[in-house]
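Hi there, hope your week has been kind to you so far. Thanks so much in advance, here it is:
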Amino acid sequence: MLERLFKLQERGSSVRTEVLGGATTFVTMAYIIVVNPAILAFAGIPVGPSTVATILTAVAGCLLMAFLANRPIAVAPYMGENAFIAFGLAALGIGWQLRLGAVFVSGAVFVLITLFRVRSWLANSISPSMKHSFAVGIGLFLAFIGLVETGLVVKAEAVPVKLGNLHDPQVLLSIAGFLLMTVLMFRRVHGALLIGIAATAAIGCAFGFGKMPTGVMAWPFGKEYDLGQIAFQLDIAGVFRLSFLPVLLTLFLMSFLDTLGTLVGVGAAGNMLDEKGNFPDIERPMLVDALTCMFSGLVGTSTSGAYIESATGIREGARTGLASVVTAALFATSLFFIPLVTPLQHLKYAYGPALVAVGVLMIGSIRKIDFDDLTELAPAFVTIVMMLFTYNIANGLTAGLVVYPLIKLASGRWRELNAGSVVLSLLCLVYYLFGLPH
C-alpha cells in the first residue's frame, strides 16, 4: 500500500529512510509549537488556543503535502509572516480577527492563481542563476539562525553582531553537536542530524541545561486550550476595504516568494530540480500551500507554507510524502503532550547546530550560479545578501527580482527577459512602493 501511495522504490527510498527523514524534519521545526503562539500573543491571540491552532495547521499541511503532492516537505505557520501579523500591523490598530481574515483571503487568492497555473508560470520564468541564489541565501539564512540560536553569534552595541561567549558550556556543546553531525554526515550515517540532535540534547540535560516539564499530558481542547476562542472568528469582509490593500499585497508577496524560495531551496538540497532549475510539478505543493493558508485563517493562526527545515529530512534521504506523514503524526502526537514538548523546544544548543549543518549543505548551489555573467551574478548576490542581512527571506527575493530586469535592460540584454520575470519585478516594485516592507 505504501509503495502504491508514495512510489518509494521509484524515488530510491525506503520506509526506514522516510521515517528518519520525517522525524528529523519534525525535530528541527518543532520550535514553531512554542514560538508561533508566543509571537501571535502580541496581536491579542490567546496562547493556549493558538498553540492548538499551530499544531493542527502543521498536521493538516503535512498531510495535504503527503497525499496531494507526495513530497517530503513539511508545512506550518511561517516565521516572518507571524511577526508581520503581530508587529507589522500594530500601528494600524486593527484587531486579530481582521488580521486572520487577511490570511484567509490571501490563501484564497493563492488557490485561484495556482489553479490557473499563474503561480507556476511566474516560478518557471525565473532564471536558473536566480533560483540557485534562493537556495544559497536560504542556506546562509538558516545557518545564521542556527548561530544566533546557539549563542555563537550575539547582538552587539558597536557592531551589529559579534562572537558569543565561548566559555559558555552550552555554546561549547553546540559546537560539539555541529562537529558530531558533520562527521556523521561525512560517514553517510543515516539519521546523522537526528542522532546529533538527540546526543547533544541528552548530554545537555545530563549537565542540567534543560528545564523539567511542568506536566506530561494535557487535553488539547480543554478550557486552557479551547480552540473555540479563535477558530472561525476571522473578519473577511473588512479585508476588502481599499485602505487594506497594502496589507493584503504584503502578505501575498511574502507568502508567494517564501514558498517559491523554499521549494527551490529544498529541491536543490535533495537534487529534485530539473536541468533548468525548475521544481517539477510545482503546482501541487503550491496548491497545498494555498489550501493550508486558508485553513490557518479559519482555525486562528498566521499564514502557512512550506518549511525550509524540511531540508534536514531531505538530507537524511527523504524523497516522498511518507516523510510528511511521519512529520504530521509527530505533530499530532505533540498535541496531547504540549506540557512535555514545550521545554524541549528551548534546547537551542541541540537543534541550532542542525540548522547550521543544513546551511553548509545548501551553499553548494552557489556552483550553479553563472559567475561569468555579471547580469546574472549581481542580482543573485543582491538576493543572497539582502535575505541574510535583513533577516527576511522575502526581502532578498523581492530585491533580487527587481534588480534582475533592471540590470538586463541597462546592459542592453533585454531580449533575455521574459514576460513572467517582468511581471514578478513589477509586483515586487509595487510591494516596496505601496506595501509594508519590513
Observations:
- The mean pLDDT is 87.
